[in-house]
Amino acid sequence: MQEESKEKKPRILLVEDEESLVEVMLMNLRFEGYDVSVARDGKQAIDMARQARYDLCILDIMLPKIDGFTVCKTLRLEKNRVPILFLSAKSTGADRVEGLKIGGDDYLTKPFNLEELLLRVSNLLRLHKRAPAEGRELDVYSFGTNQINFSTFEIITQAGKKETLSKREIQLLKFLIDRPGEVVSREEILETVWGYDVYPSTRTIDNYILAFRKYFEKNPKEPDFFHSIRGVGYKFVNE
């Protein structure tokens, strides 16, 4: 019986670099019956989230190596739907909105009341368990006469042809499409889509965008969907 209850413990990934806070949170979360793993920087958090399944991620924003916002964007890009509770020393509305906008589920400002943290953790775990299908991302996205299947990596082009894209192409498409009308910098694309191990030149991104225009635009030289913003980055528009 003991072994059975052990298996049912919700698994939490705690991402925090402040050692004294880690100790307090770890002790209290484990006392509540949670199975907690700790990552102390953003790179380690992404690696751990790729290697194991967690029921919740408590994610500090100001982290060494890779910040919490980028960690969240990377996980969501890779279709990791683990609920994310952001922790931040910043209490500005803009940071809270940004955290929720990129795929976070809740936001708690430091210093926080420990009981409130535990309550939010409990609520997020309950909501996620009750409605696992809610908020599920669409596998197929259509715009104009084009179609993208993010699961099979297949597309229907402007010319009506079926093509299969690479994983990187699909990730870049998803990154742009998830932020319609928003200008995204080359640096942000490199950090989120290509990650921290390999940094290609910005020219590589230009070539991907050119390929997208050939697939999806009626006139690649006068694009309707995939726009370059000189000196900044790119923007996907679907109106």
Automatic annotation (TrEMBL):
> What do the Gene Ontology cellular component annotations say?
cytosol; protein-DNA complex
- What GO molecular function annotation could you give as one example from this UniProt entry? transcription cis-regulatory region binding
According to its UniProt entry, the protein's GO biological process terms are:
regulation of DNA-templated transcription
Q: Does the keyword Transcription apply?
A: yes
Modified positions (4-aspartylphosphate) are D60
Report domain OmpR/PhoB-type positions.
Answer: 138-238
**Record-linked InterPro entries:** CheY-like_superfamily (IPR011006), OmpR/PhoB-type_DNA-bd (IPR001867), Sig_transdc_resp-reg_C-effctor (IPR016032), Sig_transdc_resp-reg_receiver (IPR001789), WalR-like (IPR039420), WH-like_DNA-bd_sf (IPR036388)
Q: Which residues bind DNA?
A: 138-238
Q: Does the keyword Ribonucleoprotein apply?
A: no
Supply the alphabetized keyword list.
DNA-binding, Phosphoprotein, Transcription, Transcription regulation, Two-component regulatory system
Q: Which residues form the Response regulatory domain?
A: 11-125
Protein name, per record: Response regulator transcription factor
